Amino acid sequence: xxxxxxxxxxxxxxxxxxxxxxxxxxxxxxxxxxxxxxxxxxxxxxxxxxxxxxxxxxxxxxxxxxxxxxxxxxxxxxxxxxxxxxxxxxxxxxxxxxxxxxxxxxxxxxxxxxxxxxxxxxxxxxxxxxxxxxxxxxxxxxxxxxxxxxxxxxxxxxxxxxxxxxxxxxxxxxxxxxxxxxxxxxxxxxxxxxxxxxxxxxxxxxxxxxxxxxxxxxxxxxxxxxxxxxxxxxxxxxxxxxxxxxxxxxxxxxxxxxxxxxxxxxxxxxxxxxxxxxxxxxxxxxxxxxxxxxxxxxxxxxxxxxxxxxxxxxxxxxxxxxxxxxxxx
Amino acid sequence: xxxxxxxxxxxxxxxxxxxxxxxxxxxxxxxxxxxxxxxxxxxxxxxxxxxxxxxxxxxxxxxxxxxxxxxxxxxxxxxxxxxxxxxxxxxxxxxxxxxxxxxxxxxxxxxxxxxxxxxxxxxxxxxxxxxxxxxxxxxxxxxxxxxxxxxxxxxxxxxxxxxxxxxxxxxxxxxxxxxxxxxxxxxxxxxxxxxxxxxxxxxxxxxxxxxxxxxxxxxxxxxxxxxxxxxxxxxxxxxxxxxxxxxxxxxxxxxxxxxxxxxxxxxxxxxxxxxxxxxxxxxxxxxxxxxxxxxxxxxxxxxxxxxxxxxxxxxxxxxx
Lengths: 329, 320
Known about the structure:
The complex is a heterodimer of chains A (329) and B (320).
Chain A: H1 3-13, H2 15-27, H3 38-41, H4 66-90, E1 108-109, H5 119-143, E2 153-154, H6 162-169, H7 185-206, H8 213-243, H9 245-261, H10 294-301
Helix pairs in contact in A: 4-5, 4-7, 5-8, 7-8, 7-9, 8-9
Chain B: H1 4-31, H2 40-44, H3 55-78, E1 96-97, H4 107-131, E2 141-142, H5 150-157, H6 173-194, H7 201-229, H8 233-249, H9 286-294
Helix pairs in contact in B: 3-4, 3-6, 4-7, 6-7, 6-8, 7-8
């Protein structure tokens, strides 16, 4: 089927998807003719970052394709998740041979092993840590020489760090107070909750942007893994919330904080039961998981509803061509 | 959820998108004939006619699976099959028989059952709307507890029960969770396997959204079995046995895992997410999915949970 016809039909139907398509054209290097892609409408002060030549760049041997730009965007998120879980589960960072590449390499700030009290939660942390490290290795393997380097990542427990800022936005800690995701099982699970559903919505939102069928099926496989993880975290929080209802409240607060960052539509749900049913699966009324576009995902990663190129968990921004958060507020 | 205005807007946006989907599907339907062959038939469907499969064919295949899941969970959670208005369409219609409400002892498991039932019914509704007039009818579905029924046959293949005995997935929380376990990972692999075959970007994103939900469901079931398995280790053994039984049906490659933890001591990892060495979920072709649904490793067109087969053009299990 003719792609242009497909895009015409979709474009007439769904503005948001059209924006994504334009975004992809931009990311693919054809952005000059772009007219009014609202994703970037609010970022004139940052439009020098729309097409990025990594600097310093270690002699790139190839220009990434549009698909590779999407996978590189995902790789940034996997670096973040993998480092968080690796520290929490084992006390160690990822091996350094999984971190190099194009763009600006950055260090990880913070992170330490959790002294888990529930052995089951410790096992879950080790499982997820291993999965996320495999995702990093897998994506790097697929991307080869065009894989981006790990950018600077803040997973610290500092009062000025990203986790504390996120927790403060959710009202879990007060002004000047720190949120320590490594302090105990509960904090670890809530910190994991901050990421997990976002990863699902990011891969789902990216799925129609991927052209290569092999990449697409692989991305679907990672999407499924992230949803398994999210389901595990939500189920465990819910079970603990039966004894400690504040845990349920905290997930609602984090969900609302995420929603306040990524635009007007409600794409996010905590785990408070709805009527007589649990709510361990965040879905729309059709029973379908939510999508976030790359800009919305970066709103949450940067902890900023404005169109910017850094902040929050990525103090120096992500690497690759897809690096601007959306103008969502 | 946010306030009512936002909710309303979200519903309107959704309705609009659904309308677009219908328009798009109509447009796609006319163009499908020139749409280049899909490779499903070449993968592992020797009985499959080498005809070009449309997205509608693929979504109709998924709809059959959703009918099965929705009826099982609806019986278990509410004591009734899904509404008759959700079962009409072309093909050979049938009833979902043999289920009943579970008298749950753990209120949380009852809540999970109701949530999953609602989601699966929503998937049936969503797919029927997306496919439109060509959405297939619900085929005959066996979710009963007879010793000769599908659940008992599956449980017997896994060694959970002996010859002539029956497995009743409605008898207890544990049996319900094991009954759910039989389906859940299969749904994930089915949607993943179908993902590269879907041409429409709209349908693809929707299918990705259903894939995600099936994985959330699978994680709920696996995590809950894992927690209960701490007290009742036989539950862990049962998941391994069911997984092995599934693997014995769908071909030589090992694409299935129970929930037994991996390793020992301070490095032991749980196995809630069944993934390959790259951290990716597995894929099953439609033929492999039907091996499990029909409970046969042979190429055939009916059996197991679908005594009269599934409706639509994708209907043959693989020769596995």
